[in-house]
Specification:
Blueprint (H helix, E strand, L loop, with lengths): L1 E4 L12 E3 L2 H8 L5 E2 L3 H30 L6 E5 L7 E6 L1 H10 L9 E2 L5 E3 L5 E5 L5 E10 L11
Length: about 160
Amino acid sequence: MYVLLLKKIKHLGDIGAKVSVKSGYARNFLFPKKQAVPPTEENLAIVEQKKQELLKIEEDLKNTALLEKDKYNDYVMSFEVNVQEEDNKLFGSINLQNIVDRLISDGFKVEKKQVNLPLGPIKSFGDKNIASISLHSDVSVTIPIKLVKNTEQPTEKPQE
């Protein structure tokens, strides 16, 4: 099924492009979110008229994302974790929701769908942990995640 894009979509096309997609993707996602329309003669004329306006809106969104990206400069996320001594595995793991919660508590405005852990949930102590945040289809930022060993020893409960 061919559709006419009203928005730039990563890995699919730019504004005004006529692309082939599966009918379910168009019917269930692109059309309801107003990201594409069927490529009729009327829609082709409308998109050509609005293309400059749509490009300007898209450029404004990209500029906003670039300004947002500057806020992430020199930001390092840090977690205090409990680690098994013999093999450096974490008790539990740090997952995507933990990352999103920490970003929100640190004052960033992100949604869960914008954040990605390319290496999966963090289950072992190391220094190569990163999170990727997609601010726009063309703008993304990578944040290092620093793990700090918890130095507190668990306190034993007094026996009664």
